[in-house]
Amino acid sequence: MAEHEHVRVAVIGSGFGGLGAAVRLRREGVTDFVVLERADSVGGTWRDNSYPGCACDVPSHLYSFSFAPNPDWPRAFSGQEHIRAYLERVADVFGLRPHLRFGSEVKLMTWDPHELRWDIETGSGRLTADLVVSATGPLSDPKIPDIPGLDTFPGKVFHSARWDHDYDLKGKRVAMVGTGASAIQIVPAIQPRVGRLTLFQRTPPWVMPRMDRAISGAERWLHQRLPVTTQARRGLLWGIRELQVQAFTKHPGQLGFVEQLAKRNMARAIKDPALRAKLTPDYRIGCKRILLSSEYYPALARPNVDVVASGLAEVRGSTLVAADGSEAEADAIVFGTGFHVTDMPIAERVVGADGRTLAEVWKGGMEALRGASAAGFPNWMTIIGPNTGLGNSSMILMIESQLNYLADFIRQLDVLGGRVALDARPGAVGAWNRRVQERMKRTVWNTGGCTSWYLDGNGRNTTIWPGTTAEFRRATRRVDLMEYEVLRPPAAKAGGDAPESGKHSAAAGTEAAL
Length: 514
Prior knowledge:
Layout: E1 5-12, H1 16-27, E2 33-36, H2 45-48, H3 80-93, E3 100-101, E4 106-112, E5 117-122, E6 125-134, E7 156-159, E8 173-177, H4 183-190, E9 196-200, E10 207-208, H5 217-225, H6 227-249, H7 256-269, H8 273-279, E11 291-292, H9 296-300, E12 305-308, E13 312-316, E14 319-322, E15 327-329, E16 332-335, E17 350-351, H10 358-361, E18 380-382, H11 395-416, E19 421-424, H12 426-440, H13 444-447, H14 469-475, E20 484-487, H15 490-494, H16 507-513
Parallel strand pairs: 1-2, 1-6, 2-3, 4-17, 6-18, 7-16, 8-9, 8-16, 9-12, 10-11
Antiparallel strand pairs: 4-5, 5-6, 13-14, 14-15, 19-20
Helix pairs in contact: 1-11, 5-6, 11-14, 12-16
């Protein structure tokens, strides 16, 4: 990277969000941009998560860009290696390689109110940018709990997102900590190889069968020669999930039938009543993400697996002590304990117009206008921002909606002309967030009786979108300038070119958009 390089747009991250933003920029005629990536290849979470059994729980044809359909998906639910290969192809097909800057982890980015640009310090040099698109994603920084004595453990310790492929688990005593989406894939993948597997389960998940299968050669042939069939398949998958949304957002009681199906799924594999009791959740299905696996329960029933219905509380050498006092010996500990979602580390590295970091501004809870713009951080947008997550469908749908918003954001800057920046009005951000949180009150994520990673330290759900993907697409179709203050350089203001910030209240427009 050239010293003091200046670009129009700097994109942070090269997962689905970052690569999608790069493609959209090129389609909008913007070629003066870079994609800053801390690793040495693209892929984001699908590069980092390479643990045994890693796969997506959203059907392949829905978990891909609408502008880059893949008629050759090998399975109904794709594995990590296929998704990563897909993202590599996207980078090649859309000519993104010249824009990629690997080994360029963002250390600090600071808004310059005089120049109306971002000063960015990375692991490979410094640069400035008129606009920053933060696409680091919520599943990028692993979280390992602070366990007393963990530093005394003589064996191997790693997080599921930082899998040590050089360490051979064969015949080892392995402790799996956590029962989330990663753990239910890891457990059946490693169970046949390890000597003994101890699962530390703080909260049991609801698990439904995974209806996975190989996509036949005939189907792939048809999709290749008749692209409309790929679109139809995607549309059907999308439509089914849109119809499910009301049960999650307005009528959680309707999910009782799904709970019965999940219990039957468990009963087919778990014959021991005591084990079945350990594995049965006491909260409404959907409150935490519903997990998909046809191998998880059968693996737990195997004789070399122990389920400890308690979290890991202490480590004493090679002895692991659960919160209920039970003990287990281990040679290796694998943490499947999630990520920094509501306290994203990137927020500590973004310094806004008033000198505060985004983490300081978000101390009381993350919030951003239409999931994209934070007040006090001009010309800064985030992909997969606050309250844009989903509990039952494909995040690619939400990403593409935010890319529409990004495209119109750039168009508005072009129309305004000259050196200009848009800063979300605090009133608009507040109005949007109040409406989102009001809708959240009825959802299963808030009423289902669980504690999930969707909730922040204050108990607020700052992660999930409480509506359909179609609603979100409508809400992010265009940028409403009434929700932004238009900033001009100080010198321009002194010369009479007053900022076009206006005095309008954005609340009414924001409420209507929801």
